[in-house]
Amino acid sequence: GESVGLHLPTLSVQEGDNSIINCAYSNSASDYFIWYKQESGKGPQFIIDIRSNMDKRQGQRVTVLLNKTVKHLSLQIAATQPGDSAVYFCAENFYGQGGKLIFGQGTELSVKP
Amino acid sequence: EAGVAQSPRYKIIEKRQSVAFWCNPISGHATLYWYQQILGQGPKLLIQFQNNGVVDDSQLPKDRFSAERLKGVDSTLKIQPAKLEDSAVYLCASSFGTGEHQPQHFGDGTRLSIL
For chain A, which residues score pLDDT lower than 70? Predict the structure, then answer.
């Protein structure tokens, strides 16, 4: 069935290092993906999205990579800062689902000063 | 631009009682969603509205949960009667247009605790 999963439940990095958060999806029909950041007590915050006709998209300090062959996407955060500490979720959608997002369990990113 | 507003932020009730949550989406967003987020998990869609019509309520436990968006703007989600397993954060989100291939913007949620 449909599912979005994360390889690593927790990730600890040093301030200034680059972070890579991974996500696997199982629905080959999924054609739109979003990364969200969720801080404690807050709702998910949109970071970046990518459509299936792209394999890379860059934002401010973030890059999302999509590999449709192995149904995998990743979020790269450059020069990780303490403010990046949060839980990161990937979510998938496919056209015809009316915008319904299917979320994975999340990866907790901890940035050490 | 004001974000998605939700109230209350916290609610504690006993099982079998009823509770209601309110959401005001981002101005101009036609599509509104209610999600349930259990501790340690990702959000799970309960119901999606486009304007004042229901698009998807396949995951809504209709024997106890109800939602409405009468004027196509604000929305309320109700639980009656509540069960222990309903303890969760209830998130409201909105998106532009039909929601297809559009980012959803979330409020900070209502944290519900059932005693």
Answer: 1-8
Q: Which of B42, B95, B107 faces A104 most closely, judged by CB atoms?
A: B42
- Of the two residues A105 and B72, the one the predictor is more confident about is B72
d(CA B105, CA A46) in angstroms, rounded, equals: 7
What's the CA gap between B67 and B76, in Å, rounded?
6
* Cross-chain Cβ contact B41/A101 below 8 Å: no
The structural domains of chain A, ordered by start, are 4-112 (2.60.40.10)
Instruction: Give the residue ranges of DSSP H helices in chain A.
Output: none
B101 touches chain A (CB under 8 A): yes
Is the CB of A99 less than 8 angstroms away from the CB of B41?
no
Domains and CATH numbers, chain B: 5-114 (2.60.40.10)
Q: Are B34 and B91 in contact (CB under 8 A)?
A: yes
